[in-house]
Structure prediction request, 364 residues.
Amino acid sequence: MRLPPKHLIQAELCRRSFYYFLQHFWHTIIPDDPVYNWHIEYLCEELEQYAFRVKNREDKASDLIINIPPSTTKTTVCTIMFPAWCWAIDPTMRFITASYSGELAVDHAVKSRDIIKSEEYKKLFGKVTIKADQDNKKHYENNSGGSRVATSVGGTITGKHAHIIIIDDPLNPEQAVSDTERKTANRWMNETLSTRKVDKKLTPTLMIMQRLHEDDCTGNKLKKDPDIHHICLPAEDGAGVKPAEMRDKYVEGLLDPVRISKDVIIEEKKNLGSYGYSGQYDQAPAPEGGGMIKDHWWNYFDLSEFNDQSVTWNFVIDPAYTAKEKNDPSALMAYCYHNNNFYVADVAEVWKEFPDLCKFIPEF
Prediction:
């Protein structure tokens, strides 16, 4: 039996699998070798389902939120490669893509266009070409009616309608601490972007971001639509992983042990502090005043206040029995409870093997 030409086989494999397409076109826009952690294929398969429903003009099942740490290839997968693949399966699709920065949104759109204009894409999907009279970095169209418009959050998109809306990082960390910036972003998404759909029953909104604040765009959307399809993949395993079965994919409690190793996590905790790390990496932003334990509950005291008091000091230890700083430390605390208050006299974290830890305890 005579097989079809190789490029036709490659084209069909790409159409059938977004993940295959991503691997095939990776070096078209990225010179570095890829690190294919399991979550990349998983996200590709999830996005596929949305694209095929749009291709068949079926009602959307739900909008989608993806919360995932930085440096996990989320933008390459969701905002750059995905629209280019969608045109390979249905060049009539229209996109609106947005980010907190107009310059960043344009950069994403240009990289997608670079794929579409590449010789390999032309060889596999030659019928898809960018129209010469509408080939702008912010807005380009193909010869089948498909289009892509790139904008910033808060930007003007009057008169534009999309089959798929993609929002990639609607806020940056600096904007997220501003009540005004957060409210502006949430209002734009709820009142402006939501009206830019070809068909409200058909058009899904796909939002990809790292968590930055309790009331960021993810928090706002979850309050309005608690049943939305929510994928949450924190850097470290925990109760926040969604869907819960994805926890089985974590390796030694880590989402991506190659790029977000224990050493990287230790460094990022130092750089970002506990508040920044809990949002951007653990996808669990805490209130600025504290979560279950509030800032204003804490005061300082002098141990000499207890010289004439009859109190019992308690010592608690959460041992880890390791001297390797890439692992969790042993934690120690001395405290007492007196007159309806807890008094913490001292705390320590140490990396020691069991024998050395036993020697350290009396010193503490």
Remarks:
- The chain has two domains: 6-280, 299-363.
